[in-house]
Write a structure and sequence with these properties.
Blueprint (H helix, E strand, L loop, with lengths): L1 H22 L2 H7 L5 H21 L7 H26 L11 H43 L2
């Protein structure tokens, strides 16, 4: 039971952090402004892996967590993939339609670039944070279960 409470403490700290970011208005924009929906995929994978770890913390004996270690690297890789896709969105056709004499075309180009840059940095952030949260849980699992 003590092992499960260690996992539950981590989940509660993460939940409190999510509540704070949501109440400050940051969380909604992270998901609504992503053009690729990779942040949503990363979040779903991280939540399912956290639930799997909770089940394994609850088990009385030590269980292999190689899949969870792999998934913690997958969410990080998905974040990096989102970075590349975001930069591709940012640069797609941006410079072909700019007329440097026209302030309106420059404003439109910067607006287009900012959405791709937001997607790139957003997916990186969500991938890194999800990977860190999963790796903290896995490290604690290894310490608690003596693996």
């Amino acid at each position: 039971m003590k092992d499960f409470l260690c996992w539950w403490l981590i989940v509660c700290v993460v939940g409190a952090g999510l509540y704070i970011t949501h109440s400050m208005g940051w969380l909604v924009s992270l998901y609504t402004n992503d053009l690729t929906y990779i942040t949503f995929v990363i979040t779903v994978i991280a939540v399912l892996t956290t639930l799997s770890l909770g089940y394994k913390f609850k088990a009385s004996d030590a269980v292999n967590v190689n899949v969870e270690w792999f998934v913690s690297d997958v969410v990080l890789t998905l974040g990096m993939l989102g970075t590349v896709i975001g930069f591709m969105i940012m640069l797609q056709g941006t410079f072909s339609s700019i007329e440097f004499n026209d302030a309106h075309s420059i404003r439109l180009a910067l607006s287009s670039m900012s959405q791709g840059l937001f997607t790139a940095l957003n997916t990186t952030l969500i991938g890194l944070v999800s990977s860190i949260i999963l790796k903290v849980q896995l490290t604690v699992y290894g310490k608690v279960k003596g693996i």
